[in-house]
Amino acid sequence: MSKINVKIAQFSLISCLLISTFQLKAQKAEPKTLVDIPLEADKTLFYSSNKTGTYQIYKKNDSAEVRITQDDAFNYWGVKVAPDKKKFICYRAPQGLIVKDNNSRNSELWLFNIDGSKGQKLISLSDYKWRSQGSASWSPDGKHLIMAAEVSDKDNFNRNHWHLFLTDSMGKKPVQLSTRSTSFSDPVFSPNGKYITYSALPTGTPYSLCPTKFMEIYVAQIDSASQKIKNERKLTSNEYLDGRPSFLNDNEHIAYSISPGCVNEVEYVDLQLVSINGKSYDLKTDKSVKTNAMCGEDGFIYFQYRPGLTGNSCIARIKSDGTGFTIVYQGSNFSIINPQMIVE
Length: 344
Description:
The protein contains two helices and 25 strands. It is mainly β. It has a single domain (3-343), classed as TolB, C-terminal domain (Neuraminidase), CATH 2.120.10. The strands form six sheets. Strands 1-24-23-22-21 form a five-stranded antiparallel sheet, with no helix packed on it. Strands 4-3-2-25 form a four-stranded antiparallel sheet, with no helix packed on it. A four-stranded antiparallel sheet has the order 5-6-7-8.
C-alpha cells in the first residue's frame, strides 16, 4: 500500500474507534428492559452492558442476571469465556473523555475467574510496545490466546500496521503470525483448532479514500514449526468492510459482518455466512446493525443488534439457515454488547 493509503487506513480505524466510543458512553437513567426471553436451564449468556453506568461484564441464566465485574471507574468489554468455562478474558479501559475511553489504544487485556473474582492484568500496551490491541480469544484447548495488535512494522519502513499475534494462555511469549504489511483484525480459531479466520486487507489494495472497504475474510492455518500463517485463502472479494468473523460449530462455515462503506457501521451492517470453500450466503440483510456474531454452543448464532440508525444495541440470535431471528435481551435505555452463549 502507498504511504497515503496507509495513513487513510489509520484514520479510518481511528474513526471507527470514535464511533464505537459514542456507542459505549454510559447511560444515566434507571435501566428499563423491553425484551427478556427466558433462557433454558442449561444455558448462560455472557455480555457487556452499560445499564448501571460504565460497561461491565454480566452473565445471565434462567434464574438471574449477575454483574461479575465491579469497578465503576473502568469499562469492560470483549468477554470471551475459556474452553474449560472456569475463567474469562476481556478488555478494560478507564472511564473518561472520548479519546481515553473504550478504545484499542487505551485497553488492557484482563483475566478473571468465571464469577469475576481474582482479576489480573495480562497485557498492557507497554508490555510489548504495542500501539493498540484488541479481539483476543481462546484456542480450543485453552493453551493459547490469539489477538490483533498494532505495531511498528520493520518490513514496511516501521510504519504502523495491525498484525495477528499468538500468546500462551496468560498473554506471555507473543509471536507475530502475520507477515504481509497490510492490516489484520478479529482472529478466531475454528472449534476443532484446525483453522483460524480473520479479516485483512489484501496485498495490493488499490488507492481509496476508504481502504477499509477492501477488508476481506480469510481462512488459514498456523504452521507449528515457523509459527506463521500458512495455506492462507481469501474467502470474500468485494468493496465492503468484511469483518468480525466467527466459526460455526461445524468448522466449515464462518459468520461475519459486512458493511458498505467506511463509516456505515453507524447506519447498517448485514450478517452473512461464508463456507471455507468461499461460498457466501445471506443471513440477515436490512437497515440495522448486526455485528460481533458468535455461534453459541446451542447452535444459534448470537450477535449484537441495533434495530435502527439510532438507539441502543441489544442481543439477538438467528439460525445458521437464516431463519428464527429473535431479539433475546433488549433495554430501552441501555446497551448490551459482545454476547457469548455457553451450555453448562
